[in-house]
Automatic annotation (TrEMBL), chains A, B:
Residues 1-19 form the signal peptide. Its cofactor is Mn(2+). It comes from Chlamydomonas eustigma. Keywords: Hydrolase, Manganese, Metal-binding, Purine metabolism, Signal. CDD domains: M20_bAS (cd03884). This is Peptidase M20 dimerisation domain-containing protein. GO terms for molecular function: hydrolase activity, acting on carbon-nitrogen (but not peptide) bonds, in linear amidines; metal ion binding.
Amino acid sequence: MMMLEVVFTISIFVLTSSAEKLSIDGQRVVDQLTKLATFSDHQNPAVTRILFTPNDMMARSYVKELMTSAGLTIREDAMGNIFGRFEGSDATLGSVLTGSHCDAIPLAGMYDGTLGVIGAIEALAALKKAGYKPRRALEVMMFTSEEPTRFALSCVGSRAMSGALTSEYLSSKLDENGTSFLEAANAVGYGSSTYHQLLQDALVPKGKIDYFVELHIEQGPELEKESKDIGVVTAIAAPAALKVEFHGDGGHAGAQLMPLRNDAGLAGAELALAVERHTLATGSVDSVGTTGVFEIKPGAVNSVPREARLGIDIRDIDGVRRDKTVESVRASAKEIAERRNVRHTVTLVNQDPPAICNSDIQTAVAEAAKELGLSTKSMVSRAYHDSLFMARIAPTGMIFIPCKNGYSHRPDEFSSVKDIQQGVHVLALTMAALSGGSWPQDKSEL
Amino acid sequence: MMMLEVVFTISIFVLTSSAEKLSIDGQRVVDQLTKLATFSDHQNPAVTRILFTPNDMMARSYVKELMTSAGLTIREDAMGNIFGRFEGSDATLGSVLTGSHCDAIPLAGMYDGTLGVIGAIEALAALKKAGYKPRRALEVMMFTSEEPTRFALSCVGSRAMSGALTSEYLSSKLDENGTSFLEAANAVGYGSSTYHQLLQDALVPKGKIDYFVELHIEQGPELEKESKDIGVVTAIAAPAALKVEFHGDGGHAGAQLMPLRNDAGLAGAELALAVERHTLATGSVDSVGTTGVFEIKPGAVNSVPREARLGIDIRDIDGVRRDKTVESVRASAKEIAERRNVRHTVTLVNQDPPAICNSDIQTAVAEAAKELGLSTKSMVSRAYHDSLFMARIAPTGMIFIPCKNGYSHRPDEFSSVKDIQQGVHVLALTMAALSGGSWPQDKSEL
Ligand SMILES: [Mn+2]
Ligand SMILES: [Mn+2]
Ligand SMILES: [Mn+2]
Ligand SMILES: [Mn+2]
């Protein structure tokens, strides 16, 4: 009899756990991600979605449509950040905010960022449907321009929300057609009359957000390699970006003799290799350095390059070590320019500190995963996220799910329906735990 | 009495020399070059004029207008080569042909090629005005697409005229919009129904051209440095062009760890530096090697380059040495691709033999210069010219004039009115000598 009772108790526990109350439809999330991917400047599977272009605007409409269907209250700020709110019982508390981005660099995939928006809407819809009553309000959001494609500035929306952006700096950023952010925003119905107003509108008042959590694909191979279901992010690597230009005198590829040349393209080639060399020199697998932009002019086969423009990205989980790499790259640019007799400029686009994830959120994520019987791995995010800036104004955490081969920023980026379903489920339970609300037949109420 | 007679005879000789009979207006040539430069896709002083674009078509109209004003009979072939003819007295002989090109690579200057067209029209107009009667017909022409900008193939018009182009090869060349040469030609009123007919129409029959001479700016610094007026070209360097592509797997600039990368951009950077290294390794100043095209994809600062496309130009006055450099570059491409674990392809775009200039023409140019009291320098042309292909079907020569600092293929390309006037004068006298015609009061008729 004693033994039977034990079994019975365990059974009751399983039936009434919050995990069991939630129904997360992974396939629906994938269907919605697939639909979202059709708003692209390149043919699928490639996804290209640039800030405030027609495809970005169609993606925004679709996101708002899904928020409305989920019964969320929509609000947008002047920067174009979109919020969907599920009101809580205690208006004196800040919200539990989640979200990510829907813009995509040229020829990217369909999961980066989008999962953290579409998946979060599914999470909130499921909580609502299950009768969960939030204490802290639950909010899902889509950030404006996490990717730096259009204005050579990443995380534009979250920088503005966290006060990490000045009018001077934002107004100095023009796209390749010379359009400013404010002009671009005003043209699609966002924006404001001045940069000051624009940033003022987006700035989050103190106490407005109690927790921020972002669900994202790992964009690295570790979870898959170790067969772990969920990544509990402990820190976000410190990113820096440099723009380097070399200017030489060009000339005819046949007539300009080698000793008289100052080929800007070759200066650029040397610097790209120096970026790799300095990054490897740290000896740490956590240091990464990339020359992702390399453009030369005039770009004709019979003309000596007279101009080279490089975009360099350097990241590390150790901010000090990252800064040393940045300095080494600067020094190489100078040395190469002097040796090759070309003029050069180095512009520091950004050099942000790393972010440490909040331990309460890490615990909540780990417990949610445990409740669902999922394995976890504590890990660092090497990719850039809006979380990096949200961490400046709120306790912040991230949830990773595996992605195939660690591929990201490419058309064959992929996460399975099962991994997506599990990630969304963990997100929902984490948010419920952080909200402090109640389940309809919560065990604690028995 | 005896002495006086001698003085008198010399005086007669000076007055009646052919040089004195010609009036060449250097300023008019510069004015016409300046007008021609306005037909440009970029704002002056930069000149960009791409084959069969509206600006190229306007330039062609202007050239034909000038030919008509000079009293020349105009003919065009299916390739778009334009001829202006001054008939000779002996129809059984071939013509003395001169000419160059009017297309311009992106952001080039206003003298490259154009001088050899506009200056030659002035030369023929002056000969006509002076009453010179050609024996061999005198012809000036504008070649179609000497520059490789649109179809990645240089000297398209002269290759066709000299039989150096097959239907298969020309039809395989598409511009960046996927348009073929035949489609592009037909769209502007040139062309034909088939590639076979197109090339047949342009092919020059045997005996049609007795001499070809091209007037051109040096595109190098030697004449200016040595204060010489006229370059007598002895040979044209052997050009070769390669297209190399590297393909890697790309990835996220933050998340793709360094040991797992196969960065196509870095493979390209190494190859560009290898081109320079192999070129310098010949130890000869006559070897030049250039990576003038360097494009990477996706070209985003936060994305590891997954594709690099290089356009490489290698020239030498020694064909065998040039071929060795080409082979070294091929070997480096292979070695780099294997070491960096990227896929690669090498396409040989062209690998033409050098051309030796005809000695009778060199003598005629040197004598014309001497008659005008101008200094000369025998020299090699390191730049590519239509002359390279004309040399396959006719005795060919080139006349160079100095250009400032040796600059070419850039907006500040410059030759003085005086140098232009002298070059056109030498061209006119050279053509008259090669034509074998008569001056109105020629000494030989006395
Ligand atoms: Mn991304
Ligand atoms: Mn992302
Ligand atoms: Mn040229
Ligand atoms: Mn030329």
